[in-house]
Amino acid sequence: xxxxxxxxxxxxxxxxxxxxxxxxxxxxxxxxxxxxxxxxxxxxxxxxxxxxxxxxxxxxxxxxxxxxxxxxxxxxxxxxxxxxxxxxxxxxxxxxxxxxxxxxxxxxxxxxxxxxxxxxxxxxxxxxxxxxxxxxxxxxxxxxxxxxxxxxxx
Length: 154
Known about the structure:
Shape: globular
Radius of gyration: 18 Å
Number of helices: 7
Distance between the termini: 15 Å
Oligomer: single chain
Largest sheet: 2 strands, antiparallel
């Protein structure tokens, strides 16, 4: 599975907004988010538009305008953010696994893709922006991340 730059930047932008919201800051300008997270500003503008359409962030116009999370960080999951900018979390050739059919020796692929999708969703739906912002990843996620083999190629 590949996490795109768009998804990575979206989560990082939301984490920046979460941290500033906790500090009681006013809406945050896109330029400030881009600078703080080293995200290309023009690319971030498109991401923020998608996040706004996905009801993850709200925008305010004017001199004191900018972006805020649309709801508390502890109610927004990583899956919510990724879906807002990328669509379905796991797809095969652009299709959801349950829309696929295989025959013959390839038939066992379908339950494999479904299981993969279920596990990815379980992790991404189980981690909120607040969990990350406060370095409180759920224990099962932390255990997987702490596994020495997690980043080693076979």
